[in-house]
What we know:
Blueprint: E1 3-14, E2 36-47, H1 49-76, H2 84-97, E3 108-111, E4 114-117, H3 118-141
Antiparallel strand pairs: 1-2, 3-4
Amino acid sequence: MDEERVVERQSVTTPPADTTPYAEPAGYPPEPVIQSSVVSETVRRSPSGAETARRAVVFLFGIVQALIVIRIVLLLAWANQDNELVRFIYDTSAFFIGPFEGILRTNAISAGHSVLDIAALVALVGWTVLEFLVIALIRIGRREP
């Protein structure tokens, strides 16, 4: 993952303990004075701008791809077009499928009441390829540590 890492350091020095009540015998050398140091480190990790942009692109394209897949399943299952949810999915996904209609000679294959929406399959592939291209463009612009 491309992450931005910020490290904050804080150093606290404590003075040596007071040794005046105890007197060393005359024959021993004095003990060296040791200063203890406590280092506190706080690490805050957050995604970089490029990682945030990549996540947003994946999320948005995921919504588009999910709408198209749900449309394909509903058409195959011969869903009731009078239902408001089904109508919403058909109308919303039609906006994303529109640019890909007419690429192949046929847009749909029917068998009984079920319909295999070929244009929706082409649109699913097209939006996925576009997603990969946008993510690759984001990776080109990302800064390396």
